[in-house]
Each structure stands twice: as C-alpha cells, then as structure tokens.
C-alpha cells in the first residue's frame, strides 16, 4: 500500500513518524512523510520518501504568551493550508493524519476518496478523565473536563477556518465549516490511533470506539549509530550526569538558561550535559559538557536524570529509559505531560518555565537523584512500555482497514 503520513509542527511533532514509517516500510508498504523542509533529513535518514509541506516552524518557538502563541499558530496553519493538497499524489492509497494536519486532511479525503486514519501524538478528544492536554493539568471534574475539551476543539476549528475555506475552494468542494466536518468525522467514528503509552495516559472509557491508544511511536534510530567520542569520554569520566535541554523551546534565552543550569548543577554537586537545542545552551568545564543532537535512545539510559520541557516525545523517552525527570514546561501540551510524569512519581512537581531559578532547579535535582522512589517509578513505567508495540498496533489497524 502507498501510505502518506502528513505531520507538521516542531521536531517533536514529526520525528515519531519516522520510526512508524520505517516499521511500515519493513512490512512491505511504500511510505512517504509530508513535513516542513526543516525535517527532510529526519525522513530521508529513515529511508523514507520526503514531501514538502509549505510552512516553517523555525524561529517560532520563542513566544510563550497565549496571544503570541495563537498568532503564531494561525500564521502556521494559513501557510500549511495554502499548499497542503500538493503533497498528495494520485497514487496515494492511505493518509495517516496527525492532529495538526487532520483538520485539513479530512477535506482531501472528501475530494479524492482516499481513506484516512488519525495518527495522534497526544489525546485530543474530550473526556471526563482529564482536562484537554493544551489547557494544563487542573481537573474541573468530569463534566467540566468534557466541557473544556469541547471548547478546546472549537478553538482549534476557529484556527483552521480560513485555511479550510481556501482549501475547499481549491478542491472545488462546497463550503463547509471546520466544526461541521469534525462532527461528520465523529459521527462516522473516524478511526484515530493515539501514539503514546497507556503508562502515561490510559484510554478513557468515555471515548468513542474508534479512538485507540496503541503505544508510543519512537523516532527512527540506527542501532549501529554511536555517540560522539567526546560524549563517550565524558560519560565514562565520572558518575552518571544529568542532561539539561529544552528541545525546540526557549529560543533566544540560551545565556540565561545556561547560567541557571550550571549554577544548579554545581549547587547540587552533579555533573551535567547541556543539549544546545533552539535555546542555544552552552557551557564549558570539567563537570559540564555541551552537545548537539544525539539519539535519546542511546543517551538517556546512561543518565542520572533528565531536565526537559516535557514535550511528549522527550517525556516518553525518559520513561522508556527508566530515568527520572525534572520538568520545566514552557507551553502547549507540555504542562499536561509534566503533570503526568509527576503523577506517576517519575518526576518532581513541574517548575513552570517563568519560575525557573538555579535554586529551584538545584533543589529538584537533589531530590530526583537522591530519592530512589523517582527512579523506581520510572523503571516501573519502562517495564510497562516495553510490553507495548505502537508501530505494530498501527500496522494491524492499517491491515484491518485494507481488509
């Protein structure tokens, strides 16, 4: 089957699909990933065909205010909608749509007749079990959580209004509001595969039947790939270090964050690795090393703890490695995942990004490294995750659809 995976957003919104796509290709499917040009190398390194989506997330990770976040998202969606249809060719037999691309992909399905599946990295459907992932962690009770979940979806639909109108006009489809299309998909029980672990988010009982939680999709990683020699030397030169990184978040704040990180590490008496990321973290010294991109799967099991922004992928990778965390959520769904890690006992209570200080970080690091309960909780979750096969479950669902 010729499968197109459409994913858009930051690196964490794209990378998991490279592992999923590689597994589908091993099963005999012809797989392409449509993403923004910044991540073409991730797709091609996984041995998959890359198709360009007309939007760019680079330089958009710095803002943390709600109004700025909404303006950034609206501009991104408008760009995405302007050329989304170009990524789908006549030979495509199945669309796998991320939460970001589904509100556009549904209309392509209507126009072309190509079947589609949702392939989501975070829970989006309303439930009484918890509030929407994009609104934080404070429960409003079952009725309140469901109401807030529906409100969050209405906000998403508003965000896509212009892009959907333009796309439908281009596809020569009659006008249809994004909210009307969403209701149509829900009434048809459109299938959605949620690619995260039930260790973090068990499937809510009040979801419709077509919503499944299948396990995490891991970014493609060549097992033969080795860590850089300088990093290997540092890892072998003393006790397990702590990794500190903020992924694609906190652009332009590298100097401040680097100072906080180094002071916190030394106050807690720990060795540290700073991962530069979009923030540009950097520091030198016998007890600290600065690195660029390295595979989480190769590095995380060799750490004492991870300090991170609680993106879905990094949160899952730390758990998979059985390594406890200190989370510093910045925006979006990050407070949700940070709260999930803390509820499992595998992380300290989150430190909100605006409240981050060297003193608070040092105190959290001291607790998470010295109190064995955090590592034990992470190890328990890792054992649970090892029983899941997210890519295998996705393959099974695809085969069922074809049958």
On the 0 to 100 scale, the average pLDDT is 91
CATH architecture of the largest domain: 3-Layer(aba) Sandwich
Number of domains: 2
- Name the helix and strand elements from N-terminus to C-terminus, one letter apiece: EHEHEHEHEHHEEHEHEEHEHEHHHH
Structural class: alpha/beta
Which strand order does the major sheet show? 3-2-1-4-5-6-7
Distance between the termini: 12 Å
Number of helices: 14
Largest sheet: 7 strands, parallel
CATH topology descriptor of the largest domain: Rossmann fold
| Bulk shape | globular
C-alpha-based Rg, rounded: 21 Å
Keywords: Transferase
Domain Erythromycin biosynthesis protein CIII-like C-terminal: 285-390
Protein name: Glycosyltransferase
Organism: Streptomyces hesseae
Q: If you had to describe this structure to a student in words, what would you say it looks like?
A:
The strands form two sheets. This protein has a seven-stranded parallel beta sheet with strand order 3-2-1-4-5-6-7, sandwiched between helices. Strands 10-9-8-11-12 form a five-stranded parallel beta sheet, sandwiched between helices. Helix 1 packs across helix 14, helix 3 (66-83) packs parallel to helix 5 (141-170) and helix 8 packs across helix 12. It starts with a strand and ends with a helix. The protein is an alpha/beta fold and 403 residues long. It has two domains: 2-216 and 388-402, Glycogen Phosphorylase B (Rossmann fold, 3-Layer(aba) Sandwich); 229-386, Glycogen Phosphorylase B (Rossmann fold, 3-Layer(aba) Sandwich). The chain has helices at 11-26, 40-45, 66-83, 102-112, 141-170, 178-187, 229-236, 254-268, 296-299, 312-320, 334-344, 358-370, 372-386, 390-402, and strands at residues 2-6, 30-36, 49-53, 94-97, 116-120, 192-194, 211-213, 242-244, 272-275, 288-291, 305-308, 325-327. Helix 4 links the parallel strand 4 and strand 5. InterPro entries: EryCIII-like_C, Glycosyltransferase_28, GlycoTrans_28_N, UDP_glucos_trans. Residues 3-64 form the Glycosyltransferase family 28 N-terminal domain.
């Amino acid at each position: 089957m010729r499968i197109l995976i459409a994913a858009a957003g930051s690196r964490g919104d794209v990378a998991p699909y490279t592992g999923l796509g590689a597994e589908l290709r091993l099963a005999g499917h012809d797989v392409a990933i449509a993403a923004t040009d910044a991540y073409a190398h991730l797709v091609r390194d996984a041995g998959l065909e890359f198709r360009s989506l007309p939007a760019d997330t680079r330089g958009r990770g710095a803002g943390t205010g709600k109004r700025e976040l909404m303006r950034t998202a609206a501009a991104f969606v408008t760009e995405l909608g302007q050329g989304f249809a170009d990524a789908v060719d006549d030979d495509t037999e199945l669309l796998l749509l991320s939460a970001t691309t589904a509100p556009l992909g549904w209309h392509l399905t209507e126009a072309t007749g190509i079947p589609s599946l949702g392939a989501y990295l975070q829970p989006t459907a309303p439930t009484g079990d918890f509030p929407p992932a994009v609104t934080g962690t404070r429960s409003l009770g079952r009725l309140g959580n469901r109401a807030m979940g529906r409100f969050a979806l209405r906000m998403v639909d508003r965000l896509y209004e212009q892009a959907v109108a333009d796309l439908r006009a281009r596809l020569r489809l009659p006008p249809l509001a994004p909210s009307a299309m969403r209701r149509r998909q829900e009434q048809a029980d459109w299938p959605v595969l949620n690619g995260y672990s039930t260790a973090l988010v068990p499937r809510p009982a009040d979801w419709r039947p077509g919503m499944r939680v299948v396990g995490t999709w891991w970014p493609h990683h060549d097992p033969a790939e080795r860590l850089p020699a300088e990093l290997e030397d540092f890892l072998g030169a003393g006790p397990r270090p702590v990794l500190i990184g903020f992924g694609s978040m906190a652009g332009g704040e590298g100097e401040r964050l680097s100072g906080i990180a180094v002071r916190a590490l030394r106050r807690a008496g720990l060795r540290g690795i700073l991962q530069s990321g979009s923030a540009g973290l950097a520091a030198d010294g016998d007890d600290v090393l600065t690195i660029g991109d390295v595979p989480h799967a190769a590095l995380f099991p060799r750490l004492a703890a991870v300090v991170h922004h609680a993106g879905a992928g990094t949160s899952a990778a730390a758990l998979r490695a059985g390594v406890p965390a200190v989370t510093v959520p910045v925006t979006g769904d990050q407070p949700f995942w940070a709260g999930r890690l803390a509820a499992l006992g595998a992380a300290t209570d989150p430190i909100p990004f605006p409240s981050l200080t060297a003193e608070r970080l040092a105190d959290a690091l001291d607790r998470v490294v010295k109190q064995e309960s955090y590592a034990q909780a992470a190890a328990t979750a890792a054992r649970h995750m090892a029983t899941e096969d997210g890519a295998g479950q996705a393959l099974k669902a695809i085969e069922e659809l074809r049958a």
